[in-house]
Every structure is written in C-alpha cells, then in structure tokens.
Amino acid sequence: MQSGTNLPRVRDYNQGVVLDAIRVGSGISRVEIAEHTGLTAQTVSNIVRRLLDEGLVIEDGVDPSGRKPRVKLWLNSGARYAVGALLDRDEIFMALVGLDGRILARAHRPVDQQQGAMGVVSQIVLATDLLVSESGVPRNKLVGFGLGCPGPMDHDKGVLYEPLDLFGLNWHAVEIKEALQQQMGVPVIVDNDATAAAIGERWLGGRQRSRNFAFVFMGIGGIGAGFFIENQIYRGDTTNAGEIGHMTLNPEGPECFCGSRGCLELYSAPSSLLKTIRQRLQQGEKSSLPLAGLTFAQVGQAAQEGDQLALEVIQNSARMLGFGLISLVNLLDLRLIVLGGRYMGYVAPFYQAEIQKIFNQRLLTRNVRGVDIETSIAGEDAGAVGAASLVFHELFSARLTELRLVP
User: Fold this and answer.
1) Does domain 81-199+384-396 have CATH number 3.40.630.30?
2) What pLDDT digit, counting tens, does each position of 262-303 carry?
3) I need a surface site. Which of 86, 309, 317, 322 has the fewest CB within 10 A?
4) How far apart are CA 267 and CA 325, in angstroms?
C-alpha cells in the first residue's frame, strides 16, 4: 500500500521546488516560476513571501518584456553558509561555501592516521574552526557541516563501518556524525564521497545537468559513483549505492582487498596505476617518470607531454572504466556521466576520450542517442563542495522523502 502525505510536508516540498527554480533561474519572475513549476500563482506568491522573509532570496531588477513589468528574484548567496570536508586516505580537503555553492574559503590538511578515528574527528573540528574564523563569515549564518568519505556507512545514522579506503585507521562502527555534532554545535550530515559530489554537482549546475546522471568520483584508493535518478538522489536500501569500484570486470583477475577478484578499482584507481607504473619501471621500461617518489600528478603531466608509458597505462585504465560504465548506463539508462574528484583532474581528457570511444562502439543505445561525458563543474574541489552541499540539499531541496506519511 502506498503512503499518503500531509499538507505541511507538501508545503515544504513546494518551497523546495520554488527555491530550486530561483536558484537556477538567475533572475526569474513569479510568473515564470508558476509557468515552470506548474504551481498556481497564489502558491508561488505565498512561498516567495516566506523566502523573502527568511532572507533566502532577494528582489533585484525588473523584466520589462511582459505586458506588466516583472520583478526578478535571485538566490541570496550570503544568506546561509556551510562547511564541507572530503576525508580521503591521507588528507582532508575542506571548503566553506555560500548558498549558491561558490567557495569562499578552502583548506587542505594531512590526516594523522596514528590518532585513530576520534583523533581524526578532532582534526576536522579544529580545521573547521580555523576555516570559519579566517573567512570572517558570521557563525550564526553557518547552518551545518557536511562530511564526504568512503563507505560502507549508514548515511541516516552517520556511522562508518570500516571504510574501504581509509587503510591504517582503526575504524569500526564509528558514530562520526554524533562525534562531530557534539564538538561543532551545528547539524552534521555524513555521506558517501561520490554521492556528496553528485549532490554538489547538481547544486552548482541545477537541472541543466540532466535529471538522470552519474557522478564518477576518483579518490586516491578507489572509484565510486553518485546517482541522480529522475531528479532525486539515489542511495539504495542501506545507503551504500554506487560502489562501482568493486564491479567485477574479470572473475579470474587479481584478488581485491574486498574479497572479490578483477574489481574495477584494480585497473582504474590512481593507486593501482601507480603500482603498475612502478612495476614496469622496475622491469626497465623507459620513461620520464621517476621510480622514487612517484605521484599521480606526475603521471598525468607525463601523459600530457607524450610519455608512452604514462599514456599507455592511463588509456588502459580509462578503457576498463569505460567497460564498467557501459553496464551502468545500460542498466539505468543515464543521459550524462560526470567525471570528477581531485585525482580525476590529472587525467580527465584521456578518460573522456577513451570512454567516449567505447560508448560509441558498444553502448546498447548508441544508434538511438548519445551519452554525454563531462568533467565536474567544481573541478578538484568537487568532494569538499559536494560535502557542503549536503547541508543545503537537506535543508532546501525538493525531496520526495519529504512526502512520506509520518505514522
């Protein structure tokens, strides 16, 4: 049996719809909002009045094109702020963003793995305090903190269960949301890094980014995906959807730490590429790359300069990712693939080209329509901006979960 809903929840949902229209409309009138959303003029007027009272939107300028001049509405980017942090294996990337998703301040901190999970929490809290203090943003306008990190996790409860990519950290069922919230004094949202990046991409790009898309997020140790399906974020039954890095590409392939074999990450994660290049350098292959202190940034730069070893390894990695993404697109009928994450920035052009070739040759719907492959609007800040956008998405987006009936 389907659930019904109640009027307050419908009101909240409609307010999210109107705010979303203003956010992506860049100077839109009440009449245009009604036309775009299907809401009545009176409903739009009532909602806009509330948004103006709360300071979330402002009136500025007039559209003279109609029979009657129409006042333009804009998102008030300084009305609310949020801090986001991406927790990777060895580093924390942070961003303080306004309501429009633009970065006001950023920070980058190493992770001291010797301090354990609660030590990392303290590091995040300290870094957040410094970031907000140095930015000059009023703390009473800080509405929350978002953390993006590898899974598995329970997004709703904010509990991490031995994150696959946080090697060296003794984490087991860590209630990180509660720990952060107690020390920060603001609402905290914890989510998968790729899911956070997808939400950030949507917040920055609005509905123009397609109602059905996947954000492919590349961290140093792994690859994940965040999904928007019919304009709604999809997390799955246990909130762990998107672990594409552990799709099996070759059941007889090398063993993965997850317990399976031939996983996508073993061919396409940055750490795997570095391992392959080091092995080939040790075998005597010629390259401009150094064996000692090799970084993924160096690999990307070498490929751009025509180094054959770097090019070959990157292109093979991209092809393997493309094979995995074909299954994803065929399964979900996606229109857009967004490539992002700090490490994707070093190799994105090569990945775009190789994945596009594979899609043109093997995609089930290749003769019906194409699938766009684009890089993230947020660039290397996608993870941190996405984490901050978790807060805005929770507070202001029109989400179908808001329409569930409370027993």
Assistant:
1) no
2) 999 999 999 999 999 999 999 999 999 999 999 999 999 999
3) 309
4) 13
